[in-house]
Design goal:
Belongs to the ABC transporter superfamily. ABCG family. Eye pigment precursor importer (TC 3.A.1.204) subfamily. It is found in: Membrane. It is a multi-pass membrane protein. This protein has 24 helices and 13 strands. A 6-stranded mixed β-sheet has the order 5-6-7-3-8-9, with helices on both faces. A 3-stranded antiparallel β-sheet has the order 2-1-4, with helices on both faces. A two-stranded antiparallel sheet has the order 10-13. It has 2 domains: 2-338, Rossmann fold, CATH 3.40.50; 343-628, no CATH class. It has helices spanning 2-8, 67-74, 98-104, 120-131, 138-151, 172-184, 202-219, 232-235, 258-264, 275-283, 291-306, 309-323, 331-338, 343-360, 362-382, 393-409, 415-430, 436-466, 472-499, 503-520, 532-537, 543-556, 590-597, 604-628; strands at residues 22-33, 40-52, 56-60, 84-91, 105-108, 190-194, 222-226, 240-245, 248-254, 560-562, 564-565, 574-575, 587-589. The chain is 54% helix and 12% strand. Helix 7 (202-219) links the parallel strand 6 and strand 7 (222-226). The relative contact order is 0.09. Helix 1 runs antiparallel to helix 5 and helix 14 packs across helix 18.
């Protein structure tokens, strides 16, 4: 407690809530349309509640009771709820402005929104950079970070990685404490916690709730947490309880009065039994066989609450708070919470965080580099040192198709890393930190240097081993086409993974799209003989088609290939598969090969422009999907 008390005073007193005295809600009801019956279904029914500064409220109930829905409604995170929501919420007795409410509150997800490849201190550092305005100096940011590390008992793990699937980090309880600390960095007055003890044992759960209670008491914060079935010690940490069953209130009031209330209702809590376990079992209807008896039992529970003195006292307390002289937040506090990090600061922070993640997390790019290098060695040794003869022309064409198409196809390896980034983006967007523009820009800017590095490394191995046109300009032109190919492929991954954020479905969708582009790209079937439907619908928007054309022109536009001499013929009589003006010299002009595919040598600039437009189109569609989808 010494660290927490130290935080509450002196230089870190800004965390302490001096402006919000209460948070209440009255008549909250949520109704949705049932997909099966097509009839309205009530999720929450006339729920009241009231919490004062410095108090912890436990939101409890069996599965399906509506506690998660209520928590989201109270936190004003209802954009994903296709429901009719009724009721009122009050801060200091008056309706809060949504913009102000979001800035004075924080929401901690059930799943930890943490980057496993960052250290504990780096996690808090990026939290400050994403949330705090530029007016907060570096010294103050560092002070907030160090104070929170001490208050949450994380100072000894400050330089430890959070943890990735292949590298162990901090424990589950420490991750939960870090998640809460990352939200407190912005000095919220209201803290919403979704199942903060989920996945933790009883000791770790008690530790997490103890830290939260200590912070709330020391800084006069309001904490509302949904919790499934806490241990006796953990349950005793809460000041108030709101118990739900089938969307209706079964109890709402101080935890100290639970024993007397349920005893008066004819359901006394056994002496040595966990009160939380008893009351959950009392209102749980999932395992009952007699439906009518269950309905009667719940009706009695709900009726007992509505007729109780505690329910009447709660309604009176809410009315008195609303009818009293409402207290506005001070001008100073409004200036403090009203300011947020600038867009450029957010973008730079996201880029910095992504760069750290990408070089520490081998799944993001490390494995992809190894895969591409393996592909380069395989390609270079299969098409090893091809000589420029007409017998190898088809082999050169095959190698060009393989290099472009399979490099694009292997971009599916980026799906897991992007889905992880997207999940973090969804949670941080819900907290109002940034939107899809900053996310996609940072994602693109971070990926470009890695994709260019992959293009260079792959080309150094495969290009020279296969003996493509031996010229410096030809090599770097090949690198350019491969680089654009990888950017387009990754943009396609971003679009599909944003649309269907499920690994298996995104993998299948991306693989299908790449197969489609391979079929309509112009290699398997020349564009001029391609079925009109596939040609006009897909060929002209196929980025692999332009990569293939560009690489073909790069190889054959300025290179000649020797023909076979006709057996038994005189000098200068050759058998050339592609007729050209150089046939008398037993050579094939590479342009003749291009003519066979319908390609010309003066359209490379146009192809680059079209390819860039396709990339921008994929990214724009990805932005639109992320903008419209909030989950």
């Amino acid at each position: 407690m010494a660290d927490i008390e130290m935080m509450a005073g002196g230089s870190y007193a800004q965390l302490t809530n001096m402006d919000i005295r209460s948070f209440g809600w009255r008549g909250v009801s949520v109704c949705v349309n049932d997909r099966q019956s097509k009839q309205p279904k009530e999720i929450l029914s006339d729920v009241n509640g009231f919490v004062r500064a410095g108090e912890l409220l436990a939101l409890m109930g069996p599965s399906g009771s509506g506690k998660s829905t209520l928590l989201n409604v109270l936190a004003q995170r209802t954009s994903t709820l296709a429901a009719d929501i009724q009721g009122s919420m009050f801060i200091n007795g008056r309706d809060p402005d949504p913009r102000t409410f979001r800035r004075v509150s924080a929401y901690v997800e059930q799943e930890d929104a943490l980057v496993g490849s960052l250290t504990v201190r780096e996690t808090l550092n990026f939290a400050t950079r994403l949330a705090l305005p530029s007016t907060v100096g570096k010294a103050e940011r560092m002070q907030r970070i160090e104070s929170l590390l001490k208050a949450f008992g994380l100072q000894h793990q400050a330089n430890t990685l959070v943890g990735t699937p292949i590298r162990k980090g901090i424990s589950g309880g420490q991750k939960r404490r870090l998640s809460v600390a990352a939200q407190l960095i912005t000095n919220p007055k209201l803290l919403f916690l979704d199942e903060p003890t989920s996945g933790l044992d009883s000791a770790a759960s008690l530790q997490v709730i103890s830290f939260i209670k200590a912070i709330a008491k020391a800084h006069n914060l309001i904490v509302i947490a949904s919790i499934h079935q806490p241990s006796t010690s953990t349950f005793a940490m809460f000041d108030k309880l709101l118990l739900l069953s089938r969307g209706a209130v079964a109890y709402s009031g101080p935890t100290s009065e639970i024993q007397s209330y349920f005893a008066a209702c004819g359901a006394p809590i056994p002496l040595y039994m966990n009160p939380a376990e008893f009351i959950i079992d009392l209102v749980n209807t999932d395992f009952s066989h007699d439906r009518d008896e269950v309905d009667k039992h719940l009706s009695r529970v709900h009726w007992s609450w509505r007729q109780s003195q505690l329910a009447l006292a709660l309604v009176t307390e809410l009315a008195e708070e609303v009818d009293s002289h409402p207290i506005d937040m001070s001008e100073t506090d409004m200036e403090q919470v009203g300011a947020t990090a600038g867009r450029m600061s957010v973008l730079l922070a996201l880029i910095h965080r992504s760069l750290i993640k990408s070089y520490r997390d081998v799944i993001a790019y490390g494995i992809r580099v190894a895969m591409y290098m393996g592909l380069a060695i395989m390609m270079g040794t299969v098409w090893l040192r091809l000589s420029p003869t007409q017998g190898n022309i088809q082999s050169f064409i095959n190698a060009i198709f393989f290099g472009g198409a399979f490099m694009s196809f292997m971009a599916v390896a980026y799906i897991p890393a992007f889905l992880e980034d997207r999940a973090l983006y969804v949670k941080e967007r819900a907290n109002g930190l940034y939107g899809p523009t900053s996310f996609l820009l940072s994602n693109f800017i971070t990926g470009v240097p890695y994709l260019f590095l992959i293009s260079i490394l792959f080309s150094i191995v495969a290009y020279w081993l296969a003996n493509f046109r031996p010229a410096g300009d030809a090599f770097f032109t090949w690198v350019m086409w491969l680089f654009l190919d990888l950017i387009a492929a990754e943009s396609l991954v971003v679009l599909i993974s944003s649309l269907v954020p499920n690994f298996v479905v995104a993998l299948a969708g991306t693989a299908f799209a790449n197969g489609l582009w391979m079929c309509t790209g112009g290699f398997l079937v020349p564009p001029q003989t391609l079925n009109p439907f596939w040609r006009y619908v897909f060929h002209y928007i196929d980025y692999q088609a332009y990569v293939f054309q560009g690489m073909m022109v790069n190889e054959f536009g300025s290179r000649n290939y020797s023909c076979d001499v006709t057996p038994g013929s005189g000098p200068g009589e050759c058998s050339c598969l592609y007729p050209s003006d150089m046939a008398r010299e037993c050579l094939i002009d590479g342009k003749a090969i291009l003519e066979n595919y319908g390609y010309s040598t003066g359209d490379q600039g146009k192809w680059v422009g079209i390819l860039l437009a396709i990339i921008v189109g994929y990214r724009a569609l990805g932005w639109l999907v992320l903008y419209l989808k909030r989950t």
